[in-house]
Amino acid sequence: MAARVATWLAIAVGGTGGALAALVGSGSAPSAVPEPSPSVSPPLRPLGALAAHAAEAASAPQMMAAPNALPSSPTESAPSSAASATTPAPIASASAKPAAPPPAADLLPLPTTKETLLRQEMHCDQRKAEACIVAARSYESGSAGVTDTEKATKYRRIALTAWISQCDHNSAVACATLATMYRAGSSVPQSDRNADALFARARELCRFNDAPVCHELPNP
Prior knowledge:
elongated, about 0% strand, mainly alpha
C-alpha cells in the first residue's frame, strides 16, 4: 500500500521522469509499447504527384502481354474486339463464276391471250424449244388468263429434251443454251460443271461451224 502511494505521488510531482523512476522503483516492468499494425495504409501521395504519374504512364509504351495472359477486366478486351470488328473481310476468290444471265427463252415476251398461247403450244409440238418455254412461263404466270402447273412442267420437259437432242446432233446453239440453263439453274439443277462441259462442246463445234452464238460464248 505504501509503494502505491509513493508511485502516484511521484507522478504528480515529477511528471514523466518521476513516473519512470517510480515505476523502476516499484519493481514492476513497464508494458511494451505496441508496434504499428501492418494493416494500416501508408499516407496518400499529393494529388499533383498522382497526376504526374498518370501522365507518365499514359505516355509510356505499353508492354506486350504474355500469350497466355488473360485480361484483368472486361475493358481490357475491348481493343482486341474492336480490332477484329474492323478487320477487312477476305477478298472473294478470283475463280468464282460470275452471275449467269438468264437463258434467252426466259426473256421472250409472254402471250396475253388464249389464242397466242395456243399458237405457242402448237410450235412446241413441232419441237421448237423456245416456244415450249414461252408456253410454260405463260401457264406459270397466268399471262393469258390461265394457270396450269402441270402443263408448264410438261412444256419445260419438252424444251429440255429438244435441246439435248439438238446438242447431241452437233448444234452449237443448243449446247450453248443448255450451258446457260445449267449456269443459271433454269429448268435444271444449277451445275457449273455441266455448264463448263457444254460450253466446251459448243466451242468445239464452233471450230467447224461459225454460228452467231460462237461470238457470244464465254472464255474458258
